[in-house]
Amino acid sequence: MVGSQKPVGEVTRGTTNPNRLRRIDRWIAATQAAALRAGERPLAVDLGYGASPVTTYELYTRLRAVSPRLDVVGIEIEPDRVAAGRAFLGRTGPHDGLSFRRGGFEVPVPRRPVLIRAFNVLRQYDEPAGWRAWERMCSRLAPGGVLVEGTCDEIGRRAVWVALGPDGPRTITFATHLPALGRPSDLAERLPKTLIHRNVPGEPVHDLLAAFDRCWATAAPHSAFGPRARWIEAVRLLARTHPVLTRPPHGGRRRWRLGELTLPWTAVAPRTSS
Fold this sequence. Notes:
- This protein is α/β, with parallel strands linked by helices.
- The protein has 9 helices and 8 strands.
- It has helices at residues 22-31, 33-36, 54-64, 79-92, 127-138, 193-196, 204-218, 227-238, 253-256; strands at 43-47, 71-76, 98-102, 115-119, 146-152, 158-165, 168-176, 260-264.
- The longest helix has 15 residues, at 204-218.
């Protein structure tokens, strides 16, 4: 897989910003620690990091705090972006275990990664292509590894991501900057490609967001204590009717107070064929 084959995928816009993926990195560090520490020299991949290597470097620094032996490889299709990553290393000095290389969904790395983070890379694809990309990336994971794929806005205040293993999708997480949230269904615009066109009546993801909006409205009196208190109450209400993960590391007050909600994938899996 490390040969000179043509990368699989299309060039993205490359838009990125410092701390854009902070919410996602924080969640990965909290929920995937066991995978990140697997083996003598575990490997994580940042797939499609964009025009700047800053988010790959941030991933490296944040996850090294959890797994000091972790290697991180930033992968991009566009050669100029790979050159920018390597130039960054030249300017900032050596960073043990951090590197950049050209590639795509084939994930051309020398050993199977325990983590692939792929953010904002599937927006330009259709739904069937999104499923195929998931399958291809998951096939490259190490046993027990995880793919975290999703979408966020330009400054990382709204995001939705799915965690997948070699066996397929496992969980979906909604995350937001609570003071800027109008209602939970505002996060629909950040749904992954495999779900964004399924936000219609009769589909589980639509039913979930509609129910979350109702819980949000019911929890309005808690706004007197701030948007965080309102979110926590809305999540508690939603858990009465939906399989919200309520225990650590994925759930519970510690995660909810960050503006997160995680459910099993089965809660939103498409009901109709693509």
